[in-house]
Amino acid sequence: MTFTATVFIGTSLDGYIARPDDDIHWLTSRGEQAGDMGFFGFLESVDAVIMGRNTYEKVIGFGEENWHYGDRHVGVLSTTLPEGADPRITVYRDLDGLVADLDERGVKHVYPDGGRLIQSFIRAGRVDRFIISVAPVLIGAGHRLFGDLPHDIPLRLDSVSDAGGGFAQLRYTVERRQRA
Amino acid sequence: MTFTATVFIGTSLDGYIARPDDDIHWLTSRGEQAGDMGFFGFLESVDAVIMGRNTYEKVIGFGEENWHYGDRHVGVLSTTLPEGADPRITVYRDLDGLVADLDERGVKHVYPDGGRLIQSFIRAGRVDRFIISVAPVLIGAGHRLFGDLPHDIPLRLDSVSDAGGGFAQLRYTVERRQRA
């Protein structure tokens, strides 16, 4: 038995998660009006949070009081971050090592966060569900949620809703013939 | 008084309207299961259809019996298409000439179709509404609906719905302080 992973993220209608300079004010300023859009309920169902180096730097920049992960296992995938950098996190050097360690820990539900990490998870066939909150704006440039793929990934639409503040929330399950 | 324009289009969840080789089978095969998703009702509200050369070629490739525009004014924006190529269409050489002619004809509601034409309309501030049917698939590469923009375009979410066949349909109005 291995873990499942759910991406929970906000994008612009044109598919960006941040501007070219990493700014997300266009998202967070609108998000404040919308409330948590189910995020904290989702987080309750998660027992491991995985992020890339850039996302980790952003999260710690929010300050100690905005570390929402409690006692959950938090992993950071980075080839450069020192292993003992932060007692709250485990540093992983590659995706295979990360996946093996999560399995060994008996983790059931993973929340992968951050653009490049999510794309790595998608390409490795390790994303099971998407919860995407679409902000009502075209920003025209930036970092995209979805990257190139070697083949189609078919999805099942689980639900679509008006999440408030102008956000549409789309929930999908990745269709698989069988789990690896 | 000038016309308003509504984009009515299908995309993959990753924002593509066609594969790199223009294939849209991934969209149409799913669309057949979903029905018209409101397209023919929408078309009833339209009195002019505008498309680029590529989209025009595709539409005529579907055959005479699939020309759904009836007596509506149909414009094709192309620098190369001969003016008398098709008695059903008016050929325009540039966007300014197109807009001026539509205004002169007293057109009220325009349906711009085709990727590059839609992007030109967006950048010119000439799109008023979007009706986007999101197909439940990531295709990973192709022609994107939205292109680069010189500034943000804020939107108002009008509705979000499950359109059947796995499609989510998002309807937006472009927010404007004032119309040009």
TrEMBL record, chains A, B:
GO terms for molecular function: 5-amino-6-(5-phosphoribosylamino)uracil reductase activity; dihydrofolate reductase activity. The keyword tRNA-binding does not apply. It comes from Streptomyces venezuelae (strain ATCC 10712 / CBS 650.69 / DSM 40230 / JCM 4526 / NBRC 13096 / PD 04745). This is Dihydrofolate reductase. Gene3D superfamilies: Dihydrofolate Reductase, subunit A (3.40.430.10). The lineage of its organism: Bacteria, Bacillati, Actinomycetota, Actinomycetes, Kitasatosporales. It holds the Pfam family RibD_C. Residues 6-165 form the Bacterial bifunctional deaminase-reductase C-terminal domain. Its EC number is 1.5.1.3. One of its GO terms (biological process) is riboflavin biosynthetic process. The keyword Cell membrane does not apply.
